UniProtKB/TrEMBL annotation:
CDD domains named in the record: GGCT_like (cd06661)
UniProt keywords, alphabetically: Lyase
Binding positions for substrate per the UniProt entry: 8-13, 120
Source organism of this protein record: Belliella baltica (strain DSM 15883 / CIP 108006 / LMG 21964 / BA134)
Record: active site: 83
MF annotations from Gene Ontology: gamma-glutamylcyclotransferase activity
Protein name in UniProt: AIG2-like family protein
Length: 149
């Protein structure tokens, strides 16, 4: 019997598959490289320690690169606990095979002037490099990080 699943678009530390697998009981299935159109990557979601976490915001002239995963429905509650403060919303994602719907972590809590920890940024870049996210896009994430915590 096939297990029920949902599609998930990972765009920050979950680009690092080991990090994502640590947030789930059963490993997700990597489907493809993907793009979230009309959104921009930001470090504007506050961690309790005052550092920044990644977020996506609507922005008609930007796109966010990420990975499309298939995750078992049984993982949903555990997965949501791993990302407190984010809404888990459905968005249209683009892949080489065309458009599809996937769930994405998005926060409405937006704070300017906060910066990520170096370790968090390193996790994002490591995952991006391992999964063929374009170098120019990864450079833009590094530039967005600003003053590292």
């Amino acid at each position: 019997m096939k297990k029920e699943t949902f599609l998930y678009f990972g765009y920050a530390s979950n680009l690092d598959i080991n990090t994502l697998e640590g947030r789930l009981n059963n490993p997700p299935k990597l489907k493809s490289l993907a793009v979230l159109p009309h959104h921009g990557f930001r470090f504007n979601f506050p961690n309790p320690d005052g550092s920044a976490r990644a977020n996506v915001v609507e922005s008609k002239n930007e796109s966010v690169y990420g990975l499309l995963f298939e995750v078992e429905n049984s993982e949903l509650a555990y997965f949501l606990k791993s990302e407190p403060g984010y809404d888990f919303v459905e968005k249209e994602i683009l892949t080489k095979k065309g458009a599809t719907k996937a769930r994405v972590f998005v926060s409405k809590t937006l704070v300017d002037g906060i910066f990520p920890h170096q370790e968090y940024l390193n996790t994002i870049i490591r995952g991006g490099e391992a999964n063929e996210i374009p170098n120019g896009y990864l450079a833009s994430i590094i530039n967005r990080a600003g003053k590292i915590q």
